[in-house]
Amino acid sequence: MSLSAEEYEKLSPEKQKEYDVAQQLREKDEQSKLPYRWTQALDHVEVVVPVPEGTRGKQVQLTLQRTFLRLEVLGNTLVEGQLSKPIRPDECTWTIDDGQVLNLHLEKANPNEWWAHVLTHDPPIDTTKIKPEDSKLSDLDGETRYVDSEEV
Q1: N or C: which end of the chain has fewer CB within 10 A?
Q2: Fold exhibited by the domain 36-122
Q3: How far is it, in rounded angstroms, from Cα 111 to Cα 87?
Q4: How many Cα atoms occupy the beta-carbon half-sphere of 103 within 13 Å?
């Protein structure tokens, strides 16, 4: 059962916590049933797909378009569908680790939004509960790092 923001706000703090825990368990269960695992940062999505042991690059056929993804290994489609948000296909990369796992790095077209899911037909996560890692000053560009002493 999913609550609207208004319904959620009407719950007591204890009931909100119970609801959050139940939603997290539901999400975890739904995500565990996907044929891949995924994580994200503001600028990219990482998708990890198990592949048959011994898989080599030449056995992989990957179709990446701005809003579409298809991954085939040895003629079997492992992942296919409309992406939930656009990507920059020319900036995406993939590798195979130990012949068992394909790692796919998807560069978001809009690096300032969280994805609720990788493919539109997959169950979404609650992006309002994402807690991004703290950024380091060195991660910021020079203009963002610069503070005019007269402004302080």
Answers
A1: C
A2: Immunoglobulin-like (2.60.40)
A3: 9
A4: 10
